[in-house]
Amino acid sequence: KSLFLAYEDPYRRELETMFDVQEVPTVVVLRPDCSVLISNAVEEITHLGPDCYQNWHEAAELIDRNFLTKEDFEDKSMRSFSDPIRRLKYKVEDEKKKKKKKNRGWGGGGDEGEQVEAGAGNKDGVGSPW
């Protein structure tokens, strides 16, 4: 997206101070988060021509993909880059896996919510329930 400002525009002075404009013409290229990507791109435009727009577009897309707001981090637990390797090496289990593993053991055989009485089917209650 390109925005141009007429020289006579009163907003010009405010933008001059905001982007520290030293000479005219000046082209300021902004990132998606509105920070300055290039403070004066006139020389780059003169040198590369329309190809410079593609470079800026690619840079903006890359930054936009990697740009996360503060809210994006609130629900996620922060882990290191080596966390997956550490989990494999030390076989770290998360809570869901622990619960599944616990239910697979003796007495957990899929009868969730039902109590299996010890010695059911055996008159004196002694011996194997099988």
TrEMBL record:
GO cellular component: mitochondrion
Annotated region (Disordered), positions in chain: 94-130
Source organism superkingdom: Eukaryota
UniProt-listed InterPro entries: RdCVF (IPR029520)
GO biological process, any: photoreceptor cell maintenance
PANTHER family per record: NUCLEOREDOXIN-LIKE PROTEIN 1 (PTHR47109)
Protein name per Swiss-Prot or TrEMBL: Nucleoredoxin-like 1
Organism: Iconisemion striatum
